[in-house]
User: Fold this.
Amino acid sequence: MSRRYDCSDAMDRGLGLREATGSIKRGDLVVLPTDTLYGIGADAFTPHAVHALLDAKGRGRNMPSPVLVGSPNTLHGLVTGFPEVGWELVDAFWPGALTIVAFHQPSLMWDLGDTRGTVAVRMPLHPVAIELLTETGPMAVSSANRSGNPAATTVDEAEAQLGDSVSVYLDGGTCPSTAPSSIIDLTAGRPRLLREGALSLETLREVVPDLEGVN
Assistant:
């Protein structure tokens, strides 16, 4: 049976974060607020938990889960061949609504889906998310909705779609934005915008002038 915690209450928030951390370490699923939309998360290094996440969403391996981190320093252990422009983007927009696609370290023991050697990674600008990620380490996190349905901006919307497939729901109120993160691909020769979300192409080009727009 799922448990739900009100993160606007200090005691409930502390208990909820402890329960969520324990659930992630046991390989269960958690719904958490971010600065964009609610996310459904699992331990990135527990393959059966990531598979359960994809199943809960009704999504196949051809749509692998992004990874959220609690600190930019975590990137050093996750990615390889990360270009200087990547660090410039991190400095400018993390924590925040920018997801960066890079090559992951080939030695990592994880299975996020059919990633073809890449990972989409982000550091969210939300205190509850960062507190949880600080305790759990990198989490596979995707939007907290069934595939094809509207993304959840409240925990009620997430719970209505995901139900008891999730162990812990962390209620952080209504998300401040209804837009998803913007996504930049750094795995080709020239940085390319895959999705224009909360950050516009014009804003991103202030840091990366030669950023290729969405085709």
